[in-house]
Amino acid sequence: MVVAKTKTFMNVSGPAVKALLERYELTPGRVILVYDELALPWKQIRVRPKGSAAGHNGVKSVIASLGTNEFPRVRLGIRPEHLGDGAEFVLSPFKKAQMQEVEEMVAQGCAAVESIIADGVEKSMTMFNRRAGGLQQEEE
Fold first, then answer.
1. 33-41 vs 73-79, strand pairing mode
2. Quick one: which of 99, 101, 54 has its CA closest to 73?
3. Alpha-carbon distance 113 to 15, whole Å?
4. Distance of alpha carbon 115 from alpha carbon 121, whole angstroms
5. What's the whole-number mean pLDDT along residues 25-50?
6. pLDDT per position as a tens digit, 42-79
């Protein structure tokens, strides 16, 4: 297993992902792309087996570089309740009051990645694709 964080801007991360796959002789299906998603409400997590970039420039870059959208992804919702300028929000640091929630969301994202590796994307989707708040107790 390889965990990597590109040093490029997110919008041009595709070439770095492609180089990593080539270095370790991996196919795109072995990538689990984890990224922030302004289209999802704050703290909501979505696991997807594949799909379009849905307007996310970083994902567009990865899809263009790999020549496929056939890779799982973990989307971490960062849209606040009241959003002004999306670009300004994404490029701004989190407020001190948000940091605990960010840490919880990152931990849930890590758990989603571990679940994909251990149990597969489909089972992970049933566990993590819930309403805002990410993983919740199973209903009885």
1. parallel
2. 54
3. 22
4. 8
5. 92
6. 889 999 999 999 889 999 999 999 999 999 999 999 88
Write out the two tokens for 65: 């570089």
83-114: pLDDT as tens digits: 666 666 677 788 888 889 999 999 999 999 99
Q: Phi first, then psi: give them for residue 47, nearest 5 degrees.
A: -100, 130
CA distance 60 to 103: 26
Which residues, listed in sequence order, are joined to residue 34 by a DSSP beta bridge?
A: 74
Cβ proximity of 49 and 32 under 8 Å: no
User: Does residue 45 contact residue 56 with C-beta atoms inside 8 Å?
Assistant: no
Q: pTM, whole model, 2 decimals?
A: 0.83
Strands (E), the chain: 33-41, 45-48, 73-79
**Quick check: 132 pLDDT over 60?**
no
DSSP, collapsed to helix, strand or coil, labels residue 35 as: strand
67-78 burial code (b ≥16 CB/10 A, e <16): eebebbbbbbbb
